[in-house]
Design a protein that fits this description.
TIM Barrel, alpha/beta, Dihydrodipicolinate synthase family protein, lyase, 4-hydroxy-tetrahydrodipicolinate synthase activity, Aldolase_TIM
Length: about 300
């Protein structure tokens, strides 16, 4: 897809924390700079991997403001702004627009289960009308987490009602047929479809999708960048194989603690293991297993970071 606002490889960035569990903005900004220098075209911040729903409204604003103040380009940031409460989603979306973000990633209202398409349309209509189309809206389709999927009929209705505002989707369903159906139905109108899983990067680009927004891009984005640049051929195929193996390794343990473990060992900074409950750091056995799996995948060592250290 040409001219996609976030076309390419986007990391669903981790949110480092201080020992008191407050966001560590210096470490996060440094991580964002490293990601942008090592294969990422953009950064999905304050999403699932960034533990957005473990942070309060004021914390989420402070994180975004802190990154921009530390020189992370607002145009490269796609912050998550979807909340169960409509007014919170409106406030965060307006705030992201004020910071200069070109788009926001919005979960459906996820507390009440089995809402109708009419109810979801009403929710997103209110969001668009109350924010005045200040920034582009990307739908976050992650039914395993939200329990609220976006149907093709709902997307079509939203695109007709709000052309140019409803701009795309991150599909973390793991159902590639659903991603392909969205591309077939809507990509011709400039609707950007992003995979939430590394295993589909090469395929989604070939089918007319815009790229990916993935958790494992925190550590494997440089291989995604090869796939994005080359698309086909031996080099692209080899890089896609690394993405597949890295994704499998990342999901062999609890995903977010596992990625934090890789960062802790790769940087020699044990603070990366700090995580808000209900998430917990990996056990020693899990830590050893995921490190070995990422080594076998070909991702390690991470470029430009300190030599790896053993678990503490």
């Amino acid at each position: 897809m040409q001219d996609a606002l976030f076309g390419g490889i986007n990391a669903a960035a981790l949110t480092p924390m201080h020992p008191d569990l407050s966001p560590d903005l210096e470490r996060m900004a440094a991580h964002c700079r490293w990601l942008l220098a090592n294969g990422c075209n953009g950064l999905g911040v304050l999403g699932t991997t960034g533990e957005a729903n473990s942070f309060g409204l004021h914390e989420r604003k402070a994180i975004l403001e802190g990154l921009v103040a530390r020189g992370i380009p607002a145009g490269a940031l796609l912050p998550g702004t979807g909340c169960a409460a409509l007014t919170d989603s409106v406030e965060l979306t307006r705030h992201a627009a004020a910071q200069g973000c070109r788009g926001v990633l919005v979960l459906p209202p996820f507390y009440y289960k089995n809402p109708s398409d009419d109810g979801l349309f009403a929710y997103f209509s209110e969001l668009v009308n109350r924010t005045g189309g200040a920034t582009r809206i990307y739908l976050y389709n992650f039914p395993q987490q939200s329990a609220v999927p976006f149907s093709l009929a709902l997307i079509e209705r939203l695109l007709k009602a709000f052309p140019g505002v409803i701009k795309g989707v991150k599909d973390s369903s793991g159902d590639y047929a659903n991603m392909k159906a969205m591309i077939a139905a809507f990509a011709k109108d400039g609707f950007e479809v992003y995979s939430g899983s590394d295993e589909f990067v090469q395929r989604i680009l070939a089918d007319g999708g815009a790229g990916c927004i993935t958790a494992a891009s925190n550590i494997n984005a440089r291989f995604g960048a090869v796939v994005y640049a080359k698309r086909t051929g031996p080099e692209a195929d080899a890089a896609q194989a690394v993405l597949n193996a890295s994704r499998k390794a990342a999901t062999s343990v609890p995903l977010i603690p596992g990625l934090r473990e890789i960062m802790a060992r790769s940087t020699g900074d044990a603070g990366w293991r700090t995580i808000r409950p209900p998430h917990l750091p990996l056990s020693r056995e899990q830590a050893e297993a995921v490190w070995a799996a990422q080594q076998a995948a070909g991702v390690l060592p991470l470029p430009g970071l300190a030599p790896a250290k053993a678990a503490e």
